[in-house]
Design goal:
The protein has helices at 2-29, 36-41, 47-57, 63-75, 89-124, 129-142, 146-160, 173-207, 210-217, 222-259, 265-274, 278-306. It is an all-alpha fold and 313 residues long. InterPro entries: BPD_transp_1_N (IPR045621), MetI-like (IPR000515), MetI-like_sf (IPR035906). The chain crosses the membrane at residues 12-32, 101-124, 136-157, 177-196, 234-260, 280-299.
Length: 313
Amino acid sequence: MKYLIYTLKRLISLIPVLLGISFIVFFLIRLIPGDPATTLLGSHATPDSVRELRSQLGLSKPLWSQYVTFLGHLFRGNLGYSFVYNSSVTSLVTTSLPTTLWLLISATVFTILIAVPLAVLAAARRNGVVDNVIRAVPVVGLGLPSFWLGIMLILVFGLKLGWFPVAGFGDTFASHLRSIVLPGITIALTLSPILIRSLRASMIDVLSSDYIVTARAKGLSTSRVVLRHALRNAAVSSITVLGVNIAYLTGSTLVVERVFSLPGIGQQMINSILGRDFPTVQGITMVFAIMVVAVNLLTDVTHAALDPRVNLA
């Protein structure tokens, strides 16, 4: 019961956060240079035609009135209507969102596959050659921009070796899997170093605990002690680190989507910014915000479920 109440409290606390985000998003988007009506009609449009289109799009109303309208639509689950695509923003997001979710899921899986074995190996060989190499090499990857890593992966595994597609998302489930490998690894290479350091530190701390010493004294093998006892307890704190960074990377997927020409909401957002499509940018930004908030909420709830030390009051 306490766990359910804790979850409900966390959900309620997110309402003012989302309201604040909607306010910031709405007014910041208006700072983008350029007028949507002029962009749609072209540079040779007459002032009268621009004025008429602005009136049709609702851009001639005061900003506070436009925001109230936007907020009212948002409460009803309506993200607005695209100026450029002549379609509802909800339908655009529904079409593009699955690709972005594929990317986030693949990035999470590759991050775990890379970070967990390396962190366990480094902790088990503390201060040895292997530990020093594992700690040093990922730091290099942490300093490399994701777009550069993506381009390098395209050149090597896409163009030279021909193992994976270099652009697009494919049409079948198998093509989706092949197309998402390189983008997922690109994000994973930037996220893995953070998780490796966190999990390694937690593993070292757990391995020095009394119950681990007792387990070793009972004659349990090193692999069993490390994998069954130490890793399971050390992973609790690292879940928070992974969740926070996935939430952070949710908004930065647009760079990777651009490099690999993935038809996700990040790519859609860039195109909408270039076209001064205010409703689409607002809607996609709110979707990104909800995704970040949802990942943070899931991280907190999972941490509370796994760690009995968390205060649920």
